[in-house]
Design brief:
By secondary structure, this protein is an alpha+beta fold. It contains 9 helices and 7 strands, in the order E-E-H-E-E-E-E-E-H-H-H-H-H-H-H-H. The protein has 2 domains: about 110 residues, Ubiquitin-like (UB roll) (Roll), CATH 3.10.20.30; about 130 residues, Fumarate Reductase Iron-sulfur Protein, Chain B, domain 2 (Orthogonal Bundle), CATH 1.10.1060.10.
């Protein structure tokens, strides 16, 4: 199939970038999108040019490392699909496909399509630890977890931290990511102990990292490859406001 790629290239964080066009030969509909980019890079290397850099690891939709904006949509045209799980059959012969990095103030470009998403790690880390007793594993039925809570925690924990929610948000907010990271702990009895402190720390870390504020467009939910629900944002905001109310009159550290 014949596809023309228009790919963002930028030498470094402070360099000017530009789109370069490539129309590689030999693309097949069953190639993954990343294999098509590999194909572009092979032809560039054979002609003495440097490879275009992009992030990837598992290529199985698990790790959250891949992520580019394809024709204006984070991870491309398919719902609930990471860039690495997208295939060229999702495009038509003769298409012009524009490929850009995730753009957000908190995701500075490293090179070409690679961005630094360590701001998400710092938000998660700011939440601190979950208290738990060590030594022998407790009897499994000593802490009962209702089925609905286990399911909700698991759904939230399926967030792979790719940052598509940030890239798709007009405010570059990380509220869906943070809401998911909070919910996968706070739904469970073990995670409730430090929940108040955790919510305050993580919400305030989002601001420090330069993420924008959520204005409830829910573009994040539409772009999320794991289909994390935007109701977790409302849950996080409710918990944050409650935590701040409770802290009135005493210092929350
Ligand atoms: S490379 Fe791991 S999710 Fe895409």
């Amino acid at each position: 199939m014949k596809i023309t790629f228009r790919i963002w290239m930028q030498d470094g964080p402070n360099s000017a970038g530009e789109f370069v066009e490539h129309a590689p030969e030999g693309l097949a509909p069953d190639m993954s999108f990343l294999e098509a980019l590999d194909h572009v890079n092979e032809s560039r290397i054979l002609s003495g040019q440097r490879a275009i850099e992009f992030d990837h690891d598992c290529r199985e939709g698990i790790c959250g490392t891949c992520g580019v904006v394809i024709n204006g949509r984070a991870h491309g045209p398919l719902a609930a699909t990471t860039t690495c799980q997208l295939h060229m059959r999702s495009f038509s012969d003769g298409d012009l496909v524009t490929v850009e990095p995730f753009r957000a103030r908190a995701f500075p470009v490293i090179r070409d399509l690679k961005v630094d998403r360590s701001s998400l790690d710092r938000v998660a880390r700011s939440g601190g630890y979950v208290s738990t007793n060590i030594r022998a594993a407790p009897e499994a039925n000593s802490i009962l977890v209702p089925r609905h809570a286990a399911r909700a925690a698991f759904d939230a924990a399926s967030c792979i931290g790719c940052g598509a929610c940030v890239a798709s948000c007009k405010n570059a907010a990380a509220s869906l990511y943070t809401g998911a990271k909070l919910a996968h702990l706070s739904e469970l009895p073990q995670g409730k102990i430090e929940n108040t402190l955790r919510v305050v720390r993580m919400v305030e870390a989002m601001d420090r990292e330069g993420f924008g504020s959520c204005t409830n467009t829910e573009a994040c939910e539409a772009a999320c490859p794991q289909e994390i629900s935007a109701h977790l944002i409302a849950r996080m905001n409710r918990q944050y406001n409650w935590a701040r109310l409770k802290s009135l009159g005493r210092k929350l550290t």
